[in-house]
Amino acid sequence: MTVVQHSLIESMDEVSSVLRSVQTDRLFLVVDKPAWLASGAKEILEPLFLQTATNWFTDFELNPKLEDVERGIETYRKCQPDLVIALGGGTAIDLAKLIGSLAAQTASARDIATNRASIEAPGKPLMAIPTTAGTGSEATHFAVVYVDGDKYSVAHPSLLPRYAVVDSRLTTSLPKRITAATGLDAFCQAIESMWSVAATEESMRYATEAARLAFGNLVTATNSPTPEARKAMSSASHLAGKAINITKTTASHALSYALTSQQGVPHGMAVALTLAPMLAFNAEVNDEDCNDPRGAVAVRDRISLILDILGADNIDDARASITNLLLQIDCPVKFEAVGVKTFDELKCIVDSVNAERLSNNPRRASQNQLFHLLQTV
Fold this sequence. Notes:
By secondary structure, the chain is α/β, with parallel strands linked by helices. It has two domains: 7-169, Rossmann fold (3-Layer(aba) Sandwich), CATH 3.40.50; 175-375, Dehydroquinate synthase-like - alpha domain (Dehydroquinate synthase-like, alpha domain, Up-down Bundle), CATH 1.20.1090.10. Helix content is 53%, strand content 11%. α8 packs antiparallel against α9 (227-247) and α12 (275-283) runs antiparallel to α14 (315-328).
């Protein structure tokens, strides 16, 4: 297994010293151009980039597409960089992971993306600079990619960025809706990591702190942002990323992908729509339908910790806390609000559920149970 040294850098001011230590001659930059201009990164990084041969990859769509990965690989191979730098949200960072890694493989990008081939060799080191507080991609060893409209996840230890630059100042310019959606992604990742069948003592430390930070600061960061709230959300995002790097996500993420790809619901909001009902569903786990080898009692113990974070005495109160959080940041709480109104539309969501993510859920769920659960949203 490839072991990647992972360093957290908490200020953009430290990037110059890292670049000097790497002694790079050629950089490959995967940059979200609007984020580059709006976040303040341009003013800090442009003087550094002028000192080195740089190759820019900026022409890509939201949510990583195989076609963008393939174009990026072509550009990458022409310049043969020493270091890859990603700046932006989850799309830019995941693209940088895939381009830098898949360019070093003999198998095609399509075969690796669709899991017909594996990553055999590590790519060049990656520095990930998130300009949102949500995906935590800078802390994970996997990346998502859409192939012919279907979403895949590529995982390998070498995909973990060598450097993660988490500076909340880069999120200051984020509009309210993006702050809310990305912050919800971090919150949901943390909660799902806590009840995941793969939860460990280490992941629980990351996830519980991430959930507390997100639950306590997302409303302020969205509606009346302060530097303190922005910093707390950046920390929550990074910690949630570290948590799911161990556990991966579960049922709410598994149900969210069709909402994003077919209904255009921002990812974090799509996940959050089913978080409260899934919490109630998982709280009723028993030894017969428990996916976690540690048993139903261990799952319910972790769910009790979730209730504590939500300030709830029982599941009904916990559901109300999550719903209230969404309402305070103007996020949908009903499927009707995002255009899902018919039997067939609900069935499409269930039919397209991500089986791998669903298998991480602590309670097994049949398609009929999932459909019934969605009817309550």
